[in-house]
Write a structure and sequence with these properties.
674 residues, 5-stranded antiparallel sheet, 4-stranded mixed sheet, 46% helix, alpha+beta
Length: 674
């Protein structure tokens, strides 16, 4: 077996700098990736970097089929596949695959199944066998089982298989369910297969169908003589009520549409119902799709990954916002500062003989520690930690080291990098506390526990609420909770303390001018400089720069698709950072001009409004784009969006603070003071 180069970073089909770097990588990989016959490997429209190991099969070789958790875009709560009354392997054969922390947090649970097939051996129909509960593939469903099927099907749950590390997808191109032309009754080939046909799609029957027959269509490529690789897996479900097992044979023509459907209605007198579980296998050969581009079919499911024009329009919009804001900064700040410096630094100026006014007047208070300085320091330190995590994860994602074939890799990498970046948190917090003359370890501990503690508490609350209302849901096990607590208490907090200890032994930061003993009285401020106005109004500008990309991310996240255009995301992050920095500088300058030296918190509030607008958008997205049907799913959605909004607020606020501090330090460093 040889290692293949598997991972994508491409931005688009246009000749950008990122694509030139990508093309260079592709050329290097092509030079290293000659096959045994000397032919170069095929070039994918996505670009890959070393990833997973190639697995090939010989004719009649056994292909293992694994089941994953049941997921729904309408109910959100994941369930174990065998929480449904499907035919289950014997206890000795039922095994759970090893899963990383990212998979556990995402709710994945991959297990063995009774489905099995042999390479390039077509099967017209075959009953599930090997389960003590399902002799000849038949199982008696009790009224409670039928009610459970009815509930899960109408909540939009989908089954998920994993074959050769590939998730199954529906039939590409969209298919009307039960020939119903309603838009909501069209399966547009997302991942997995529907457990059945919802009641609203069964026309005049007003009942729910259970999908009991699955047709696998597996595409393979003979990459070497006699060696086959799996490049695509599709599944098409049918509801077939097979009463005679002889109707299902491996070599006998089988038409699943010729059978009446299996409904969730109980039998006569409220009795159970006998259901036969069957499947078919069709192998399709191709030379068009190879190992290096077999994930294209899955990545292309998301509009986000295929339409580069939409991303470029978003980037153009962000650039226009930056240009307009930069022009405002240049015209107002630079021109005004130039006049201010000429007036303040020219002793012969007539204005200098008059009473001081403007931002120079508050030079004795501008570096006075802010109210709630420990909390302020904790927010900035946490923001530094989050920004460091984002940049490192984004870098590795663009380089292709977080493959979608490596399940849970992105979430796991984010968690580990958040822990590692705790050093940055401690370093920044220690420096601020020492500058504010608050060198106390309890304030360092506050920074170490504040944000992770709130997030951990919200996560545990969600898990408890889900478990209390859905006892069989895939909630976090006690071992997973202990792992999270171990990362936090055993690694994150000590690293924060280590970073703070380093800066506590360094010289303290000093302001550009001395702080007076008595604070000046602050005059009445304009309404647009009040904290509430600065918190709500300016934040719409960085939100406008990030709106389209945030929408793409939410679409991929809540529709169960893969977001994989990290190059565009990196440009968006840069645009939002520049916008946040410029907004914060403008807000701080105007506050100082009106003799309000309380700029510390304003530097956080002005760009932090991005988080407020994102949460407001999530409310609109919930009502316009989602079809969530349960209160529990609504609770999970808004809790997740709240945590994301708070994280965005902290990161944007931190960028605003660093830009504002540099601005304030420079202008007071270069002005003559008495």
């Amino acid at each position: 077996l040889k290692l293949q180069f598997l991972y994508l970073i491409g931005l688009s089909r246009t000749g950008t700098m990122m694509q030139r770097v990508t093309l260079l990588c592709a050329l290097v990989l092509a030079a290293c990736g000659q096959n045994d016959e000397g032919r170069p490997q095929r070039t994918s429209k996505y670009h890959y970097i070393p990833g997973m190991q190639l697995v090939d099969y010989t004719d009649k070789g056994y292909v293992r089929v694994l089941v994953n958790s049941l997921h729904s875009h309408d109910a959100l709560v994941p369930f174990d596949f065998y929480s449904m009354p499907y035919c289950e392997p014997p206890s000795d054969d039922l095994q759970q695959e090893d899963e990383n922390l990212g998979q556990l947090l995402w709710g994945d649970k991959i297990e063995t199944s009774l489905y099995g097939m042999k390479m390039r051996e077509n099967v017209q129909c075959k009953v599930l066998s090997g389960s003590p509960d399902c002799p000849n593939g038949a199982k008696i469903l009790t009224p409670a089982d039928l009610e459970l099927f009815d509930k899960r099907i109408n909540n939009g749950y989908r089954g998920n298989f994993v074959i050769d590390n590939l998730p199954v997808i529906g039939v590409k191109g969209g298919r009307m369910i039960n020939n119903n032309p309603k838009p909501e009754c069209t399966d547009m080939a997302p991942r997995g297969w529907p457990l059945g046909v919802q009641k609203e799609c069964t026309k005049h029957m007003d009942t729910t169908f259970i999908n009991t027959h699955l047709k696998f269509r597996i595409t393979v490529n003979e990459h070497m003589p006699g060696q086959w690789i799996i490049v695509r897996v599709n599944v098409e479900p049918f509801s077939t009520d097979i009463e005679n097992p002889e109707d299902c044979a491996a070599d006998k023509p089988f038409n699943p549409s010729a059978f009446k459907p299996v409904t969730t209605e109980p039998g006569p007198g409220g009795a159970g119902k006998k259901v036969t579980w069957t499947y078919a296998v069709e192998w399709v050969e191709t030379k068009e799709v190879g190992w290096e581009d077999r994930w294209d079919a899955y990545l292309s499911l998301a509009y986000t990954n295929t339409n580069s024009r939409a991303h470029w329009m978003n980037i153009l919009n962000s650039l226009l916002v930056i240009l307009c804001l930069s022009a405002i900064v240049a015209m107002i700040l630079l021109r005004a500062l130039h006049l201010d410096f000429n007036r303040y630094n020219n002793p012969e100026s007539q204005d200098e003989q008059q009473e001081e006014m403007g931002w120079k007047l508050v030079h004795g208070d501008v570096f006075r520690p802010p109210p709630a300085a420990p909390l302020f320091s904790a927010i900035v330190g946490t923001g530094s930690q989050l920004i460091g995590m984002l940049l490192v994860v984004l870098l590795f994602a663009m380089l292709g080291f977080l493959s979608p074939s490596n399940r849970g890799a992105l979430l796991r990498a984010a968690l580990l990098m958040f822990v590692c970046m705790s050093v940055c948190n401690g370093f920044i917090v220690g420096g601020l506390l020492k500058m504010f003359q608050l060198r106390q370890w309890k304030y360092v501990t506050l920074s170490a526990v504040l944000y992770p503690g709130v997030i951990f508490l919200l996560w545990i609350t969600r898990e408890v609420v889900v478990l209390a209302n859905r006892p069989r849901a895939n909630t976090a096990a006690m071992l997973t909770i202990l792992k999270m607590m171990g990362l936090w208490l055993g690694f994150s907090i000590p690293l924060v303390i280590l970073g703070a200890a380093f800066t506590f032994n360094m010289p303290a930061l000093e302001g550009a001018c001395r702080v007076t003993k008595l604070a000046r009285k602050i005059p009445v401020q304009r309404w647009y400089l009040e904290h509430w106005a600065l918190f709500l109004l300016p934040g719409i500008i960085p939100f406008g720069a990030a709106f389209a990309e945030l929408r793409f991310i939410m679409f991929s996240m809540w529709q169960g698709l893969v977001y994989y255009v990290f190059g565009f995301l990196a440009i968006t992050v840069l645009a939002v950072s520049i916008t946040s920095a410029e907004l914060a500088v403008v807000g701080v300058y105007f506050s100082l001009c009106f003799e309000d030296y309380r700029w510390w918190w304003k530097s956080l509030i002005v760009p932090g409004g991005l988080g407020v607008w994102f949460f407001l958008y999530s409310i609109a997205y919930y009502h316009r784009m989602l079809t969530i049907k349960t209160w529990l799913a609504t609770f999970m959605y808004f809790q997740t969006m709240f945590m994301a909004s708070v994280s965005l607020w902290i990161m944007a606020a931190t960028v605003g603070f660093f830009a504002s501090y540099l601005f304030v330090y420079v202008i007071y460093r270069n002005v003559k003071l008495d």
